[in-house]
Amino acid sequence: MQPTKVTLYDTTLRDGTQGEGVSLSCDDKLRIARRLDEFGMAYIEGGWPGSNPKDIEFFDRAQTELSLKHARLTAFGSTCKAGIDPADDEQVQLLIRANTPAVTIFGKTWDLHVTEVLRTTLDENLRMIRETVRFLKRHGKEVVYDAEHFFDGYRANPEYALSTLKAAIIGGADSVVLCDTNGGSLPWQVGEAVDTVFQEVLGQESPLAPRPPQLAHITVGMHAHNDSETGVANTLEAVRHGCTQVQGTVNGYGERCGNANMISIIPDLQLKMGYDCVPDENLRELVELSRYVSEMANLNPDSHQPFVGQSAFAHKGGTHVNAVVKYVMSYQHIDPALIGNETRVLVSELSGKDNIASKRREFGLDGLSKEEERRILQQIKELENAGFAFESAEASVDLMLRRARPGYEQPFEMIDYTAAVEHRAGRGMFSEATVKVRVGERIFHEVAEGNGPVNALNRALRKAIMPFYPR
Predict the structure, then answer these.
(1) Architecture of domain 413-465
(2) Which CATH architecture best describes the domain 7-278?
(3) Could you say which DSSP state residue 250 is in?
(4) Predicted TM-score (pTM) of this structure
(5) Region 295-320: what's the mean pLDDT?
């Protein structure tokens, strides 16, 4: 029977923080873990307790400060070192002391890494994998085995790459995860390799065929990187070929070009491929989750990010807007409300009359004739030709529409203003602004200081008009 459930394994707090410019405090990591749990992630990889003091602190604090309702917290580490028993390996002991219900370890799959990086034998590497998994299982841990460089290793020496997975399973691994660590694989390469894993390692002749009973419980997962811009595509292809666990990071944060973007993987699997990942009401929080994590990481949200970006469902060209007004799905691949986004219509020199009419409705304005809308459209085109830009100045469009309505009365008139930046003894640098404003028949002069000339002008103008327009 074809699986309908895909398990989400989030590694934002570990692999995501390896991205250049991504830095999270321990408090940040705890907050994000809670939010990931609320969203419905099944596993949250908290960090590598053997690599840095922050991750040790995180797991220490998690034991008393983190009460997860849905997810299993996971500590990450490596197999024991060559020639050492896992019980004598300090890094493995730290995984036990992290006191998480699940532990993820990575091991070498590519024979080149075994001989040239670890500088050990292929057989010793198999022992390291098998015995580390076995040691962790004896301590009651659920064990996820990440087969590092699996696809590179499979292309170089398929027999050995598959033998590393078998070693993990013999040791008692609950899951084996196929990692495209360098991000160099293409979807058809992933699909072919995954098929071989199910056939040669799990004894499953086809995705719908039964496995031997002793292997029926093994989960196969996919961990992709985005160096070839195929991280999400490779993950989806792995699921098509039988993988039921996907690893990724929020917003695709991660080393080099990033990890597979969980924010794209989830709606692709759930809305397009029919898999069950999270409840529908949680899926509607996808935009909020993306922006929450970017805020915690002190990174600007990517406005062009698929699904959740501000521009993901934005329509600018007049022809497109004309079609969207008639049938909203004519230029949208999904209903944006399903993931918490919205359709947006932009105004620019490429606009048509439907762009203006759409903005008028958005602002709740009526009483404008078609001729007035055409006049405003022409005015915008001329201003953009002169160098103005209205895409990010929607308030200016709002004002233009309001001024064109019948019976419009100017609420106030700015007669003149001055703004200055000065340096005075004992005060340092400061800004001061003076405004002269007419409201009705009365004229007001106001002065204000501010953090820069624009802020000073804003404060002075507000002082003048707030008595008349308190909201």
Answers:
(1) 2-Layer Sandwich (3.30)
(2) Alpha-Beta Barrel (3.20)
(3) G
(4) 0.86
(5) 92
